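agent> step 3/5: call structure_predict on target 'Tigger transposable element-derived protein 4' (Plakobranchus ocellatus).
agent> reason: downstream docking stage needs a structural representation; sequence fetched in step 2, passing through unchanged.
tool.input:
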Amino acid sequence: MAGGKLTILPLIRKIELIEAVESGKKQKIVAEEFQIPANSVSTIMKRKDHYREQFYSGQVDVNKQRARLANHDDVEAELLRWLLRLLKNFVGKNG
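tool.output (status=ok):
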């Protein structure tokens, strides 16, 4: 990026941006408010359904700049169950 500052918006800010544009504000004004290039606003608006899905699913930390989703939900769930059993046994023996 030649001379410009790279700004990555967390998911919550992208949702705020989408709502601002949909409320009737011009994309150029919104870009200035969020201190990002106008073409970034356009890109976010093109992917608004994707961002809303992530936001409302609750699977993503809305304050993270990049969403990291589990690729194998079943493995992640089983790992969590195993960890909880392990912690329960540990607390039971030491508590």
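agent> step 4/5: record observation. The domain at 11-69 is CATH 1.10.10 (Arc Repressor Mutant, subunit A).
agent> proceeding.
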